[in-house]
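It would be a great kindness if you could assist me with a short task in structural biology. I am sending you one protein, given as its amino acid sequence and as whole-number tokens for its backbone shapes. I would ask you to consider whether the tokens describe a fold that such a sequence might reasonably adopt. The full record is reproduced below for your convenience.
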Amino acid sequence: MHTLDHLRKSFNGATSRADRSEIGQFLTPVAIAQFMSSMFEGGPQEVRILDPGAGAGALFAACVETLISQKNRPLSINIVAYETDSAILPYLEGTLKRCQSLAISNGIEFHGVIKHEDFVSAAITETRETLFDAPGMRFTHVILNPPYKKINSQTAMSKMLYSSDIKVANLYAAFVWLSMLLLEPCGQMVAITPRSFCNGPYFRKFRAAFLRMMSLKQIHIFESRKKAFGDDNVLQENIIYHAVRGLQKAKSITISRSDGLDFDKAHTISVSYGRVVHPNDRDMFIHLCIDNTDDNLAERMKCFSSSLNKLGLSVSTGRVVDFRAREHLKQSPQQDTVPLIYPCHFANGFINWPVESGKKPNAIVLSADTSDLLVEARFYVLTKRFSSKEQQRRVMAAIYDPARINARLVGFENHLNYFHKQGKGIPADLAKGLALYLNSTVADQYFRLFSGHTQVNATDLRKMPYPTHEQLLHLGAYVEGTMPNQETIDAIIEKECLNCDQ
């Protein structure tokens, strides 16, 4: 296996990061491959392994080594590995030959094939049942590190997936979905992918299919987003998960966590399946509760028992997509314009407008073409939809106060979410209380429990628990000309939680 780490470094040295990013290919470090293979439970005597994006073959090689080292070795091992990158095929062929030698020397029958073709197209053909075709091979084990790349909706691949009712926005989800379909009943899958599928609207259909077909057994989380593929500069938050194909769900799920590749020092707990996938959650979010701190956090959040629906509030994404409305945007306010609010206008918990020194326009022309993009200038609570990877907070809120900006209408740019009441503003004290709550450390930490990416989507915000109407008014009384500092906000929220307990 050390040879594979050498091959990985050689391949990375011979290709640019841009090339690897273009095809979404980041080869799996051997330490991760070995950890992933250790997740598999004892399987059948006739093993059939699928590696849909094999790269240099580190994953299936680790799987073969693990199987052979077990007390109850399989009688036969059959490997099917897909790889489209011609540059890496010689490395992959060498890995397959070493696996063959290892298996045969241990008295195990071995068959292996490398398919130099597109896995998605091949798998769709394999999974389509017709009157004339016998079903293709089904696998006992799937181990995969799929490519990370958005799928262009206009491509032939996208149309092929859509016609098979596989509706996904990213290639990694397509790989996992098709791999599930190629598993035999009770077949096992171990995958390393971005954590982004665990929540949010974009992966809802994928989550529903995954949780319907598979039973999660273990999830591993990396403390640092830079550690899993550090030398590739991959900054997605990755997780590794083990799941078994079948309708019967496990009673509990093992959640493990490591700072980097030192898996021997991983912190591990077991939690009930219902804590990770809430039984009545229609969006089927995967909640990654990891330790007692998270238990305490969930307990504290019970103080906030309301919801946006109960409060009569809604949250929407800003209507102004600036590149589509470019011809209507103005750098500075003019007679025929209204304010256009961007994240750069956030300052001390309120909207500071205009910002003349910024790169973003401050205004949008009021016309028949833009009227549908605007809302009445009243009190709103705004949150940034995107946080940079370096920022400590995900949820950042600010109040739009109409008394500070002389305007009848206002536009909110698409990088913002805005809280409203039936499309219009919300009462001032309610808005202030809501903004204070969203800016609390408790709310931000709770949001991170189920959100693994840097986006803050309106769907995610709808899922949050909220203070009651009375609590929000009480919190709003603490907000005057500026938002209190973080320490004060957290003390206010802590006091509110203590009042709930009494």
